[in-house]
Amino acid sequence: MKFLQFLLIVCIGFIGCQSKDKSKVKTSKEAILELLDRPNILWLVTEDMGPYIPPFGDTTVATPNLSRLANEGIVYPNLYSTSGVCAPSRAAIATGMYPSSIGANHMRVNSYTKERGLPPYEAVPPSEVKMISEWMRRAGYYCTNNYKTDYQFKEPVTAWDENSPYAHWRNRDKNQPFFSVINFTETHESGLFEPYGFREIETRLYHAGDKKYKWKNFGEHHANNRMTEEDTPIHLPKDTKFNIPPYLPDTEKTRRDMWKLYNNIAEMDKQVGAVLKQLEDDGLLENTIIFFYGDHGGPLPREKRLIYDSGLNTPMIIRFPNKIQAGTKDNQLISFVDFAPTLLSFINEEPKPYMQGQAFLGPFKTKERDYIHAAADRFDAETDVIRAVRDKQYKYIRNYRPDQGYYLPIEYRERIPTMQELLRLKNEGQLNEHQMQWFRERKPKEELFDCSVDPFELNNLANNPEYQDKLKEMSAEMDKWLEAIGDNPDLPEGDLIKRLWNGSDTQPKTSAPTITTKNRKVTINCDTEGASIGYKIIKKGKTPKSWMVYQNPIELSEGEKIQVQAHRIGFIPSKTVEFD
Question: Which residue intervals define the domain Sulfatase N-terminal in the entry (predicted)?
């Protein structure tokens, strides 16, 4: 296959780079263009996931499907989200831009604003920005998403061919390449709530006939339809011994939450196996690049929402067709903003100039990163302002509110029994020095950690004379990054909204599309700069479910009608216009 030849060329270049200047060792672009076929791309995305699985050194629970994927693929231990929580991180993945550069870093932009005297809003990236799935659709890919559209903005109708619990690559045209995102919710923070078995959102695979599976979303559970612990598959003995991180108390409640965490991971692994089986059954395994990753770090207290490694670092495995580089490890630093440019690189398209990430694979792979960056602002009703930069060894954190303590009393998190246990022991004066760090009433302006010897980031080196050169280096890198992406950490959220809305008090609207026709050839325009235009052709009174991405004039046959909507990301979408 041409695609396999292409991958072999890329891998030879990759191997050669191990002992040479990686910016100079490149394969021939002409050879790549000649050999490249468009691969299918499958993303398997789980939630609230630290490196708690055997391919990353944690053997607490068996994950046969992920272990197989790792044995046949490449393990990436140094993937970092741009935030310790899902929606900002998802904005970075979807756009290739840092959330704090486009107004996407407050969790969430459309909630907990009324209490602050602010309107709900959406992130507003530059006009040229499209979701990565739309760029893939424009390149001819069939793009599906089974669940989760929490991007900090409403996705345009042009984003996906299918966006529903029933979305599947099997619905594409024959031989059309696909980009499919399958989201798994079993490992979500809510999976630690009591009574165990509760899921805020429950997603399951179920068999629908002899030929295929579909994904079914059961929606939010209410009191009368929660799962019980008896209904929940048990994958791990309840007397399992756990390595409790030093920032958590070793109590019965903590151990029970750890048991739930790993049991949920095993259930997620089972779901991953069902999807991989479908891919194999369809004969597509060896023409598909498979990604597995989490949306940020772990679900436990002092993990999710924080920008320590426990909140940012998430495992990634990539399996290439024919098991190229099977069983290897790639230690390069990777950020979520790198996903969008890498997808374009895979399909032999140059990353878009506005993208703040960089391709880490494919013909447009660039020099490996020296740093990754992250930010934390508002979470639900509680606000802080923190920025972080990390290289392969050190983490630098800058606290813009040193007079405010670390711990934020987030009601949702306080439903976790371990969090309740931490608060109880704090009130009783029974937490040790490491566990009390999170509850300090003040925090230092700067923090520096040597993550190679202090992986839990408990020993601040910022005032240590021996590390002043490193501190200055990392601080300078942060200043450079903030300026490059236009991030003003001190900007109040109300002023941010005005900036996003160009000084207005109301969210901008996308102009209605205009339609002109000549000899049944339809041309569509929109006065709103950067608006994506979606359309449906209505034939014999039947309206398709999916919107097509408008790129060129459309020729209508006699009796056909066209339905059109325009939408710039962050703006209110236009009204739907119909023409016959």
Answer: 39-345
